[in-house]
Design goal:
Chain lengths: 393, 206
């Protein structure tokens, strides 16, 4: 029998069921039919004036694609980011809607694990800016430079953007395989903070570009959710700002010009080798690098078009210039393991303490059981290497 | 080596959890293994659903499980009222004291209907031991080490099956089961199984 103290209040459960139904885009009428009762009964359940029976809860959960445990688990967090994304026209697309739901679930999981482990999420957000009247690119370049300065980054290349986002700024960052057209998502909620999701199907440089783009949204349009799509025409000032911000943050003008001068000294032409080395140095794609050189008037307009028309700059050429080991690093695709580092660490800690089961963990991290088992084995192996010298307090 | 095995001591039907189904499918001979057992083998609806969810991500386990069910090798058990009450108890409360739907349903069906649960999850074993001390709960290794399985499939096939499950499904092995596993697949193969690394290191450091 369930301890009365453990039993969730009907009001809380009703609210959770409502959020799950709306996230799954199921109408009250459809849910009621699936559960075999009147719509008015579902209304009463969602308001908390009627207690749902376990069989009814199970049927509703099946209808909404959520687990009963996530509905009845005391610490489960039910963030409702998805309705905010639905206000965007893009979310009519199934792939984008799915990405929004994924971000929602990952944020919920991370917050729940923090609560269970008693970990406080630290945030170190710079003041929120606004996009002012006038040229967005100029504002973006300045704001990106200011943020670098605020973070103490100087003007040099950034080694690991996602560490800066997660560890220095305290933004929640996730990377998962999504529909190819989705490069990234950004959302903000007062309770959980800023969240970014990038596409693990994309190459590393593209994920970095997406992350920097979302950082632009975080900087100047923090309270608006956003979906960054591949090849989407930048027809809004917000999007043009974010893209310009991303470019300026990753490839600051002064630094690019200085490195360009150093690398091309003595050369009469811009070569593929120059582009490959510059792109590798700044951690951006070859195309992004050339476009940035064009934007800064360091290369002539149309330079990237010329490369494209003349065989492009191939991976093989990159391998020849950078060598095998560096090339492999620079084009690393995601392994099967999702790379949301902080979420994984929290989940593994909860696992170690016996607080989560394999099924609960798979459901929280939204990953397959076998991949999860591999992740746990890898983490356990690292722990075994631990030595007193590197023990934390 | 004979592994002490609660599944050998009971004629009760077995209820398999998702973790066990995944491990058995990974052996590549789930039909032969399950048919060798005298006990009936069933799964709950929650297990079927969870494995079906994996199908959307490209995993084949759902199709395999469907075949097992369609061919009558594995039965499907629904929760009755008694099972639902136990299920509700197991999925409610704090994270530390609750289980996932599939894990909870497996135990609920087993307790309510007088069957033996087969589930690898340690937390599930612990919670079950606290709440239902009389309930028998086995693991995949206990199922594979059942003498009936060895008699039916033979040493070579069983060794290969164990190795496949370790390599492809990262099957969980408890410390007291390691010697049996090594006896099945050999020391070298065991040393090369990532999921056994921790146990092998602990064993070799003694």
């Amino acid at each position: 029998m369930i301890n009365e103290a453990e039993k969730m209040s009907a009001v809380v459960l009703g609210e959770r069921l409502r959020i799950a139904r709306e996230t799954a885009r199921v109408t009250q009428a459809a849910a009621a039919i699936a559960a075999g009762f009147a719509r008015t009964t579902l209304v009463a359940i969602e308001k908390g004036t009627r207690t749902a029976r376990i069989g009814e809860i199970q049927t509703l959960c099946q209808c909404y694609g959520v687990s009963v445990n996530s509905m009845l688990r005391r610490e489960a967090i039910h963030v409702d980011l998805v309705p905010r994304f639905r206000k965007l026209s893009e979310t009519a697309d199934a792939g984008i809607e799915s990405a929004a739901c994924l971000l929602n679930d990952l944020v919920s999981a991370e917050v729940e694990l923090e609560n269970i482990l008693g970990v406080e999420k630290s945030k170190n957000y710079p003041p929120e800016l606004a996009i002012l009247k006038g040229d967005v690119r100029t504002q973006a370049e300045q704001d990106a430079q200011d943020l670098r300065h605020w973070l103490g980054l100087g003007i040099g290349p950034i080694q690991d953007l996602f560490s800066i986002l997660e560890l220095q700024l305290g933004i929640r960052v996730f990377s998962r395989k999504m529909d190819a057209k989705v490069s990234g998502l950004f959302a903000y909620d007062d309770a959980v903070g800023a969240c970014i999701l990038v596409n693990a199907n994309h190459r590393k440089e593209r994920r970095v570009q997406s992350g920097a783009h979302e950082l632009g949204h975080f900087t100047a349009t923090r309270r608006l959710p956003e979906v960054y799509q591949d090849k989407k025409y930048e027809n809004s000032r917000d999007e043009r700002y974010a893209s310009a911000f991303g470019r300026a943050f990753l490839t600051p003008a002064r630094s690019v010009m200085q490195k360009f001068k150093e690398l091309t000294v003595g050369s009469s032409h811009l070569t593929r080798r120059h582009v490959i080395l510059m792109a590798h140095l700044f951690g951006v794609s070859r195309q992004a690098m050339v476009m940035r050189l064009e934007e800064l008037d360091v290369a002539k307009k149309g330079t990237w078009g010329w490369f494209e028309d003349n065989g492009g700059i191939t991976d093989k050429q990159v391998q020849q210039v950078l060598g095998d080991s560096i090339y492999k690093d620079s084009v690393e695709f995601m392994s099967g393991h999702p790379q949301s580092t902080r979420l994984n660490l929290l989940a593994l800690e909860a696992w170690k303490r016996g607080l989560v089961s394999e099924e609960q963990m798979a459901q929280l991290l939204k990953i397959d059981r076998v991949i999860l088992r591999d992740m746990i084995d890898e983490a356990s192996a690292e722990e075994d290497d631990a030595h007193d010298l590197i023990k934390l307090s | 080596m004979i592994l002490s095995n609660c599944l050998s001591e009971t004629a009760q039907p077995l209820v398999l959890d998702t973790s066990v189904v995944i491990n058995l499918i990974a052996t590549t001979i789930p039909v032969q293994i399950i048919k060798s057992l005298a006990q009936n083998v069933v799964v709950g609806e929650a297990t079927i659903q969870e494995i079906g969810f994996g199908e959307k991500k490209g995993y084949q386990d759902s199709g395999c499980l469907k075949l097992l069910i369609d061919n009558g090798v594995v039965g499907v058990e629904e929760m009755d009222e008694g099972a639902f009450q136990i299920f509700e108890e197991l999925v409610t409360g704090g994270m530390a004291s609750s289980l996932g739907d599939g894990e909870a349903a497996t135990i609920a069906i087993a307790v309510s209907k007088g069957k033996t649960a087969v589930i690898d999850e340690k937390k599930a074993h612990n919670i079950c031991a606290q709440k239902f001390p009389e309930q028998l709960v086995g693991t995949t290794i206990e199922l594979l080490s059942h003498s009936a399985v060895l008699d039916a499939v033979g040493q070579t096939s069983l060794s290969d099956a164990v190795l496949q499950s370790l390599q492809n499904a990262r099957m969980q092995v408890r410390a007291h089961q390691l010697d049996w596993v090594i006896g099945m697949i050999g020391e070298d193969a065991a040393a090369n199984c990532r999921c056994l690394n921790r146990l092998m290191r602990a064993r070799n450091s003694k």
